[in-house]
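ingest -> validate -> predict -> emit
validate: passed (alphabet ok, no gaps, 77 aa)
predict: started
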Amino acid sequence: MTIRVTLDRVLLDKRMSLTELSERVGVTLANLSILKTGKAKAVRFSTLEALCRELDCQPGDILVFEGRESDKKSEAA
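emit:
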């Protein structure tokens, strides 16, 4: 099971650069890049709240849960 980060899609939809988002939320460009590429191991609720506020979205727009592989196989059958 994995959680996929779709920040790049949300940024594209909102026509906002990662640099602009970084300035608005007060999170370094390097940390947002780690989040965007899915390499982050955790995200603070305060960061998630700031992202949602600036992007006018819900947490589920940024984070997507992709269930277990066994769940996907049973759905395909």
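The first strand starts at residue 2 and ends at 5.
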